[in-house]
Amino acid sequence: MDVLVTAGATRNPIDAMRHVSANSSGRTGVGLARAWAATGCSVHVLGSPEAALRAEGLSTEVFGSTRDLMARMHQWVQRHPEGAVVHAAAVGDYEVADSEGGKIPSGQDEVVIRLQPTPKIADAVRGWGLTGLLVTFKAAGPGTTSEGLVLLASKQAKRTGSNLVFANVLGRLASDVALVGDEVRWFEHRADALEALVGWLTSAR
Fold first, then answer.
1. Cα separation of 185 and 192, whole Å?
2. Closest CA to 82 of 136, 135, 41, 133
3. Model confidence at 81: pLDDT above 80
4. CB within 8 Å of 39: residues ≥ 6 apart
5. Helix (H, G, I), strand (E, B) or coil at 69
6. What's the chain's average pLDDT?
7. Which of 61, 3, 8 is nearest to 37 (CA)?
8. CB-CB contact of 101 with 125 (8 Å)
9. Mean per-residue pLDDT for 110-139?
């Protein structure tokens, strides 16, 4: 099975020196990629610069902004429409509107930056012609209840055509993970949920 794994955080430019990003090392995505590669899958990692360093030895490609990641994923799906996509990257939801490039001068009393939404990558993948498996991730806001998390993940699965959504809550990412698909499976520990995800995709090929 051909498998694409996205890992790490996008970097949406503010100017030539600065960017908006998320707190994601890519450790989860790379760990999954290594596990699937060990089962004989042909795995390609689209990673942030930090994730790409973790993915040494794997087929790896570095992405930058949200739009850059989207374009690279689109290209992969066009080449592997029957493959599996595991979209674990932390994708920036906003980018600078009307950016003129260059560098914002230092020393100003105040800098106001106007942001606009970026395209929703997960929503687009099926439209690119992917007929294989699609796994997406959902990190809900702190305070989200178990019932609320399942509802959010179920809506994401329906909206994106995901076969499975790996869902948890910010602030307790290491525990209380739900794998939401045709059924809902709860895991007390994140490591157990990741192991189950590896087994699910491996058995589905």
1. 11
2. 133
3. yes
4. 198, 202
5. helix
6. 93
7. 3
8. no
9. 95
Q: Which top CATH class is 2-97+112-204?
A: alpha beta
| Helix or strand run (H / E) with residue 77 | helix 66-79
Would you put residue 150 in left (φ > 0), alpha (ψ -120 to 50) or beta? alpha
Beta bridge partners of 116: 95
Residue 162 token pair: 């995901």
Q: Is the pLDDT of residue 101 over 70?
A: no
3-class secondary-structure state, position 139: strand
Q: Which residues make Cβ contacts (< 8 Å) with residue 94, sequence separation at least 6?
A: 12, 20, 115, 116, 117, 118
Q: Which of 113, 140, 126 is nearest to 12 (CA)?
A: 113
β-bridge partners, 187: 177
What the block records as the tokens of 113 is 């930056």
Report residue 189 as tokens.
Answer: 């520990």
Angle at 178 between CA 172 and CA 182, to 5 degrees: 165
> What residues contact 173, with CB distance under 8 A and at least 6 apart?
139, 190
Residue 103 backbone class (left: φ over 0; alpha: ψ -120 to 50; beta: rest): beta
Residues 6+ positions from 156 with CB-CB distance below 8 Å: 122, 136, 138, 162, 165, 167
Model pTM score: 0.92
C-alpha closest to that of 94 among 78, 109, 116, 77: 116
Which of 7-21, 168-182, 187-201 reaches the highest mean pLDDT?
A: 187-201
